[in-house]
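Design job #97: recover the sequence.
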């Protein structure tokens, strides 16, 4: 077996569903060693639709669109003409479903949503929050403090996914191609995280595998970065947003000197 040292980067993608699969494929096309290992599984919830006349409706994720308007014509019919989406990906999914008047904040998070001018003078307004079960309470809490009457429609939930142990073996194992040992271990091991919930699900596995000191986290927000720092992860890079495009860009920038 021939020893051939090359700059190898291994990336573990923890985002679930087609988006995670697409990011894994994009990383492989860019020349990275890439593993698809979703930490969370999305389960649809029963739709308990409140019978109200809503002045505003906020979609907090692409899954919020997938598991609401894409499942029920009734939800489509009850929504106001102008909608609010947490980011470009969520807005694009709404537009695919026929909603062309969609507001998005400058920052794709609750803090960004709360800065929108349409969510300032809202006393007495009835606002529908379409989201996953659990998660942050900041958006609903702040809108309620501003005088709005908020209704949460939990259209999906996240459960911890069982991660195949072979992912860890492959992630830290030698990289072999055409019977040549390319490197004893990748020069850089990266794990992508799109939510605090994904970090929480993965943390015990990282500690058990004793690899937390040998990885770099590429995360989708400052909030995830802060939580990761609390858990004593040292190498953390924050992407511009939670999109695959932003994650890939962050990884390419990070590894520019190696590849």
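Job complete. Output follows.
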């Amino acid at each position: 077996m021939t020893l051939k040292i090359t700059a190898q980067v291994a990336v573990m993608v923890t985002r679930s569903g087609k988006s995670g699969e697409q990011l894994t494929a994009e990383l492989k096309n860019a020349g990275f060693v890439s593993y698809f290992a979703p930490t969370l599984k999305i389960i649809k919830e029963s739709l308990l639709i409140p019978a109200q006349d809503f002045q505003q409706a906020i979609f907090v994720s692409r899954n919020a669109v997938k598991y609401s308007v894409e499942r029920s014509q009734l939800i489509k019919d009850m929504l106001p003409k102008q909608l609010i989406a947490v980011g470009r990906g969520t807005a694009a999914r709404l537009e695919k479903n026929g909603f062309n008047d969609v507001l998005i904040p400058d920052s794709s998070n609750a803090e960004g949503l709360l800065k929108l001018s349409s969510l300032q003078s809202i006393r007495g307004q009835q606002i529908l929050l379409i989201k996953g079960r659990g998660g942050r309470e900041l958006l609903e809490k702040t809108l309620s403090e501003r005088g709005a009457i908020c209704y949460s429609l939990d259209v999906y939930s996240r459960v911890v996914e069982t991660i195949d142990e072979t992912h860890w073996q492959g992630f830290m194992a030698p990289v072999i191609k055409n019977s040549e040992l390319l490197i004893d271990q990748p020069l850089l091991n990266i794990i992508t995280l799109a939510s605090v919930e994904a970090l929480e699900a993965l943390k015990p596995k990282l500690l058990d595998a004793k690899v937390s000191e040998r990885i770099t986290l590429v995360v989708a927000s400052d909030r995830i970065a802060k939580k990761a720092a609390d858990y004593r992860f040292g190498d953390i890079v924050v992407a511009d947003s939670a999109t695959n495009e932003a994650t890939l860009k962050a990884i390419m920038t990070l590894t520019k000197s190696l590849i």
